[in-house]
Amino acid sequence: MNLSKVEKEVLRQFVAYLNDIYPKQIRSVILYGSKARGDARPDSDIDILLLVNDRHKIDRDKIYDFIVDADLEHGIDISLNIYNAEEFNRMVTWQAPFAANVVRDSKILKSARDLREAGDYDDFYLVTKEEAQLAIDNAEKFIKGVKEFLDAYYGPKNL
Fold first, then answer.
1. Which of 16, 123, 132, 150 sits 20 to 30 Å CA-CA off 5?
2. Is the separation of the CB atoms in 34 and 71 below 8 Å?
3. The Polymerase nucleotidyl transferase domain covers which part of the protein (predicted)?
């Protein structure tokens, strides 16, 4: 990942802003592209994918107000794509090039809703694919342990 301190702060503010204006619509905010891969040039923009419940309820002008301000105040260029989560999942299933690039190169910004509910903006972080895989591996080990316990207690045929 290749974000400056100012870029991280602008993204933190962006996630909070999105949650303020659309608290029930934001599903995920995803960083992808050269900034996520760590091979950005000085003139690279910040590519953001916004997954929402219903993109027809999103007023892009409100979001672009923040983006324009970030550019004017900090010289930070945010490139935004907005999709319903279901639309994006279909694109992943179809192996659409855009979706494949996002999946391959993305860093998921912690959910705006989670940040607001926790009230802890210091806990803002990026989840790497390695961290996500570790969480999945740990969950699978836990499930296996529960299944073994239940098999031993009830017998495998009673499940």
1. 132
2. no
3. 11-88
24-82 pLDDT tens trace: 888 889 999 999 888 988 889 999 999 998 999 999 999 999 999 999 999 999 999 99
Nearest to 50, CA basis, from 66, 37, 39:
66
Q: What is the pTM of this model?
A: 0.68
d(C-alpha 125, C-alpha 76), whole Å:
19
Structure tokens at 37: 């891969």
Report how far residue 3's alpha carbon sits from residue 36's, in angstroms, rounded to the nearest whole number: 8
Residue 104 and residue 115: Cα distance in Å, rounded? 25
Alpha carbons 89 and 93: distance in angstroms, whole number:
6
